[in-house]
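Dissemination and training. As part of the outreach component of the grant, students in the summer workshop were shown how a complex can be specified as a set of sequence lines and then modelled as a single object. The example used during the hands-on session is reproduced here so that future cohorts can follow it. Participants entered these lines:
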Amino acid sequence: MAATLHPPRLLPSGDSAVTVEFSRTIDDAANERVLALDKALAASPISGISETIPTYRSLLVHYDPDKIGFDALGEKLLALTGQSLPPTTKARRWRIPVAYGGEHGIDLEDVAKALNTTPDDIVARHAGGDYRVAMIGFTPGWSYLSGLDKSLHMSRRQSPRLFTPAGTISIGGIQAGIQCLAAPSGWHLLGRTPVRTYQLHRNPTFLTEPGDRVTFFAIDPKTFKELDRAAEAGEIIAERVDA
Amino acid sequence: MSRLIVASIGPASSVQDGGRFGAQRYGLTVSGAMDRLALAAANTLVGNEPFAAAVEIGPFGATFTARDGAVRVALSGAPRNADVAGKPVVMDTSVTLKDGETLTLGFARGGSFTYLAIEGAIKGEEVFGSLAVNARAGLGSPYPRPLQAGDEFAVDAASGAPELRIELPKPVGGPIRIVLGPQDDEFDDANKALFLDSEWKISATSDRMGYRLEGPAIKHLHGHNIVSDGTVNGSIQVPGNGSPIALMMDRGTSGGYPKIATVITADVGRLAQTSAGTAFRFKAVTMAEAQDEARKFQQLIRTLPDRLRSSDTVELNIEALSDANVAGYAVSAVDAGTWQVTAEP
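and obtained this result:
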């Protein structure tokens, strides 16, 4: 299997980080290779690496140029990518409640219009999807999902919004996401979830991990309020389904 | 224990240290000082570790009052008028506030962020080894938000150590240096040249998360959507409207717009200190040069204690002071003549 894989590209990200890119598109096989390299580095650390950040399709490796140079590090990283994949651990599955549309999802109607359909249809397609947490990034707990229905693929906004609320459930490009904190975003806002994927003094602080599976289900605004109160109190309201 | 009271303070001021590392994989932003060299210089002046927690003061004025004993502090970064009880305080020096005395700081000149380090450092509850405030995430300590009048820090009583100044090297002026990539191949040669040959200004809507750059629109080769991947401090992404955004300390750990270039480590603080509206340019350097500069920058921070001098020996040379305090931060000239350096004991 390894022989058919493209060799990853090393992309300089300034003088203290390198992106090891396995793919330019969303591809669960590429994501598996990202996570495998990440695990391989954890198992046999390279001196000078301070932190790694797995993404959909690349591993961002932060390092100290005082300890290792770009070329030497690149060689070592490429050597590790050639190793066979460790067995994957069994994925956890989360059911995430979402209040769609209205004040909770201000772009739902526009998305429906742009795709020549109804808001209900968009909700059905979004909630009907089976997603995989491909990466976590941007802001604490922001979970990027692969598996968005092809009919929902649409360009991000030309100019990002400076503010989108905590719990935003949105789509952008071919990606779907669960946002935990208020943040700027160029994605389209379909709804909000009361689930906190990050809560500082809760155990665990971070709910999702790359590789987890996610499905959504619709709730009404009243249920949103109730669940939001429970979540604020530290309850994990996402439903865990063990496959 | 003494206390340092924030008597008044403008917006965009917060507690910052070297930053929060180790959980970027969960989207936990790094945060930390916008100008790491200035943070380190201020801390070194009062005998702290270079990246200990200090007050990052935004462009507006501020006043701090010592209570329950004396408090020794130091200032570095964007220059501004400062005085204690009407007696001017020079940048890049330490000063001790006696119980009840107030340090008054004016607006920043030719820069944005000034660091007030406190002997013994600011104390608080660390998250991932850091007190750095990220207001958006509600993170940081002792106040997980921008500072407000009435906030106070419990601090060590002043040790009585002699006051010091620090001789920082003459700052590098000129363009902000970058390394192209990681997605420079999402732009054709003409647009890369446009990025490198144009004059840029930082928009007034900029903040600790990102500096929006005003200039010509940079066009993408294949559109503005890429599959999100990791970002670093100094990543320059180009969204759909073609206006680049330099990602700063409160940046998201990943982003979905192509990143044309990355500001080199040694110049991120200089970019941070460039005031809104000030024109500047970028210059591409090789990886070897960027890494060499990064190593020199680290070496400079390690050897800051060697640059400490007794503050009695300070020479009132307005040119030297304006070089040390001003030139590196603003790319355009700052009127050094208006910078008050009249008094030093």
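Chain A is about 25% helix and 30% strand. Students were then asked to discuss how this feature might be tested experimentally.
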